[in-house]
Amino acid sequence: MMEPGLYHILFVSAALFFIGIFGFFTRRNLIRMLMSIELVLNSVCLNFIAFNKYLWPNKLDGVFFTVFIIAIAAAEAAVAIAIIINLYRSHNSIDVSTAEEMRY
Amino acid sequence: MKGESIIFYLLAAMTLVSALLSVSSRQLFRSAVYLLFSLIGIAGIYFWLQYEFVAAVQIVVYAGGIAVLIIFSIFLTHKSGEKLPKQNPTRLVFSALAVLAGFGLTMLQVFNYNFTGTKEAAVEATVLAIGTRMLGMGKEGFALPFEVVSMLLLAAMIGCIVIAMRSKPETT
Prior knowledge:
The complex is a heterodimer of chains A (104) and B (172). Chain A is mainly alpha-helical and 104 residues long. Chain A has 3 helices and no strands. In chain A, helix 1 (6-26) packs antiparallel against helix 2. Chain A is elongated, with a radius of gyration of 17 Å. Chain B is mostly helical and 172 residues long. Chain B is built from 6 helices and no strands. The N and C termini of chain B lie far apart (76 Å). In chain B, 22% of the residues are buried. The model of chain B has no long low-confidence stretch (mean pLDDT 87). The chains are: A mainly alpha (104), B mainly alpha (172). At the A-B interface, helix 1, helix 2 and helix 3 of A face helix 1, helix 2, helix 3, helix 4 and helix 5 of B.
């Protein structure tokens, strides 16, 4: 156990990213996939903040990237949930395998 | 070991364990609550790094907004207590293998890379400094991305209304 530094935070954010990817691969439920995407976006934000803190503390660019990513993630979640509720109305299910009219 | 190291390891463990439980739980509502804990853990790491403004934004937008939105949509689309169907074990094994390989490769690259940062004096990430640069139009300002994000939010709001609006049958 060492003093936590840049590498520790990069480890945490990489683990979070791949946990999100794992959830995205294994579940066919739209809400579950949306939650996995949120985990991935959060790991990216954590990376930006860690680089800003430990490598370029004389600038604030990582903070701005994080704030903009959070704003875009909020917009993305709102649109995704509107689509999910609309899909549930027309198909009575939010499993991705039931919505296949546009497959071919 | 110092107190702040212990706090960091506790926050990291809380984030990762609740993220794992969130992707592996079979009840959707529980997994949303675990996701909430994971997001709060990340906000705690931002506090630990002394970026208070980003931590506050994380709590307000993610824990307060997106988690509540997800829980609402779970209530609108699922019966309570309903379990998700079991996973195909082949898919589970192969995605775990792919994810572990990717994680190993990434960590190998990260630990072999020698990061060199700047030696200049640190800027405090106060709300005043962030706000001045966010709306500044000079060389270091972020006024244009700020306006673009506000247009994006407006477009997303209109798009949500259009998508979720119940289309009336034609009456001509």
